[in-house]
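Friendly challenge for the regulars: who can give me the structure tokens for this chain first? No prize, just bragging rights.
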Amino acid sequence: MPRASTDARRYAEAAFQVAMEREAAERGAVDAWNAALARAAAVYADERVARVMTNPTLARVARQEVLQRALVEPLPTPILNLIGLLMQRRRIELLPLVAAEFQRLVDRRNGVTSATITSASPLADDERHALAERLTLLTGGPVRLTARVDPALIGGVVVRLGDRLFDGSVRGRLERLRARLVSGAL
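First reply, four minutes later:
Bragging rights claimed.
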């Protein structure tokens, strides 16, 4: 998978660079491209659409038309060209990763930090809001939260903020206690 994420990053960076160039002439181009890529990736997530899009026996134009028909509003031509390039190089399965990488680049440009909160059970809205406020204070800027559930945590939360990890889970505490007991540090 490392190659796939590297390839997706390259496609996303190239698309982002073109979008930034267009941004000079066409205000909001980057955000429009980001939204279009997210829509295309969401449609591609449908198994039936993905099956057609990855079918090399169909002409590329026919596969692009299937995607266009599945979307509510049409994609901008540059995004269609990117999708066509992915199909031509038989890399269309990278579309969701390209969209995610493009979003990461947009977030970086806008000063938004991504955070993943993993908890043992789903968080209530007020808990998510309180965590978002604390993380915003910690980072000094806006934070995009992604919530996950992992019952193996037993309780508490684990927060991944960029390359930092804050482990406040019961499982993490038990593991740290076990390590201290084994090393004789207690």
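The two ends are 41 Å apart (CA to CA). The CA atoms of residues 113 and 139 lie 8 Å apart. Your move, everyone else.
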